[in-house]
Amino acid sequence: MRLSIVLAMLVSATALQAQPAADETQEVVSFGPTPATALLVGEKSGGRLAIIDPESLEVVARIPAGNNLHEVATDGRYAYVGSAWPGITVIDVQNQRFDRSIDTGVLGSFHGLWVTNGKLYVGHERNHIVSRYDPETRQFDMALGVPGGSHIIHVTREESTIYMASSASQQIVIAQASSTGRGGWTFTTFPGDTRMEGFDITPDGRELWAINMNAKSITVVNLESMEVVATLPFEGGLNNRIRFTQDGRYALMNELNGNELMVWDVATRQIAHRIDVGGGGEGIFIDPERPRAYYAVSRANKVAVIDTNTLTVIKEIPDLINPDGMAWYVAQ
To answer: Between residues 273 and 236, which one has the greater pLDDT?
Structure first.
């Protein structure tokens, strides 16, 4: 069952369940309209989705979105926010309001979220499943059993490949659509070490770098030859997120218990720089339009805005309660 696609009979049990927002005492706080492009930030302990104007770098709205918020994804109309309850919270970004929540039902608890071609992909690590939700029908239309967990996921535009890393199963899993594979998919796995979570793919699509959190190393997979080509050790605290800059020159790595954002030189595969951000952080997001990165400095309740050319902090966005997951909204 774990290596097959479980279709309508399973996912019909996970149909949308309309529920109220997690904290009805919270209200939407708006300082202006949602811009055509915006940075969305989940406040993990604040239970809110913050909408930030990337031009002014000011918060334009805060919307209640559940509690214990983790990943955020968007399709240009809705933001999908992962929370402990009431499930996946759906926010109407343009109208700045709670829209509904999605109950994942028998698919189980989840963490990773990713939107491709208007479909929401969800990683259910504990149950070794990646599911797909169709916002038009408001139903899950796929549940793919995978040989390992799916803490964080990345889905290609063609929906032909799903990359995932597993904190529980300690491995990288690559699922590829295939007419000869079991259930229409083939799976390639690469062993990692304890608490493998964060990963990213180089802008040229040639390599995948995944952090082994407890082992303090990065596993590098060549995606053309499909083999591990390097293991990069480092000294750090708790590190579980990594992102490549737009030009592919640097890889930015968080540190939960430190005060710095680590910068890897991709060509030399060495840590080349450390940026003092004044606290430990988690989520990292790369601006798709500017040479800029956003770092959720969760321990200091702020987002640090990094110029990826000069590797300096150019602004801080304060008063965000334990920020973490982020996404880029482009109005559709």
So the answer is: 273
Q: Report CA Rg, the chain.
A: 19
Residue 112, both tokens:
């990773």
According to DSSP, the residues that pair with 217 across neighbouring strands are 212, 233
- Spell out the alpha helix ranges (H) of 22-120: none
Which pair of structure tokens corresponds to residue 86? 């009431």
For residue 201, which amino acid is it?
I
Contacts of 281 (CB under 8 A, 6+ apart): 254, 255, 256, 261, 295, 296, 297, 298, 299, 300, 304
Tens digit of pLDDT for each residue in 132-163?
999 999 999 999 999 988 899 999 999 999 99
User: What's the rounded Cα separation, in Å, for the pair 103 and 105?
Assistant: 5
Closest by Cα among 58, 118, 61 to 91: 61
Query: DSSP label at 5?
Result: B
DSSP code at position 10: H
Residue with tokens 């690559």: 174
What is the signed CA dihedral for 202, 207, 213, 215, rounded to 10 degrees?
-140
Question: In the structure encoding, which two tokens stand for residue 325, read together?
Answer: 């997951």
Are the beta carbons of 79 and 40 closer than 8 angstroms?
A: yes
Alpha-carbon span 23 to 229, nearest angstrom: 48
Q: Considering Cα of 284, then 43, then 126, then 160, what sign does the dihedral take?
A: negative
**Among 273, 309, 278, 310, which Cα is nearest to 295's?**
278
First to last CA, the chain: 37
Q: Which residues of 49-83 are buried (b: 16+ CB within 10 A; e: fewer)?
A: bbbbbbeebebbbbbbbbbebbbbbbbbbbbbbbb
Q: How far is CA 202 from CA 113, 152, 153, 291, in A?
A: 19, 16, 15, 16
The three state secondary structure string of 194-211 is CCEEEEEECCCCCEEEEE
Predicted TM-score of the model (pTM) = 0.92
Task: Please check whether residue 94 is in contact with residue 34, taking contact to mean a CB–CB distance below 8 angstroms.
Answer: yes
